[in-house]
Amino acid sequence: MVGSGSLSFEARGFHLNVGGCFWGVCYYVGLFEESNGDKGEHYDGSAFIESRYHNYAQENFHDTFKIQAGAGDGGMQEPMMPEGIGWSADQWHSFRIEWGSGTSRFYVDGSHRLTANYGTDRSIAWRHLFLGTTNYKGVDWAATGITYRKLCLKR
User: Fold this and answer.
1) What is the pTM of this model?
2) Which of 78, 100, 133, 148 would bridge with 68, disulfide CB 3.0–4.6 Å?
3) By C-alpha distance, which of 41, 63, 52, 139 is closest to 97?
4) Rounded to an integer, what distance in angstroms lies between the CA atom of residue 5 and that of residue 2?
């Protein structure tokens, strides 16, 4: 059981024309309480903390990251970075997600960018890690051409 901790890694390949996104949404990392990793149609499935990238295909949100968090109780927070990243596909960047006490924090290149609360007083066992995709509604909305390295999970 990992009730609090951090996940860090480096990745490259995020850019406006990245493929594999569904309606402009690319899920690329997620922590889940249950092995199926499906947060449910009404966010009432597995407890989750995940991040996604939005490419050019989505009308209102593009070239930016979002973090989502929920305790599987139907509630969810999903703040999004307001600005585009403007990266080229060959640039390496560091990512870190920290969690504990009902809060998740998202860092890019060492800078705190987003916070999402999953606010619950029950202990959540973040036992399942999806890297490169997640399993939202059983659909593979994974960005293609992303390379990962230096994965580190701490508790």
Assistant:
1) 0.90
2) 78
3) 52
4) 7
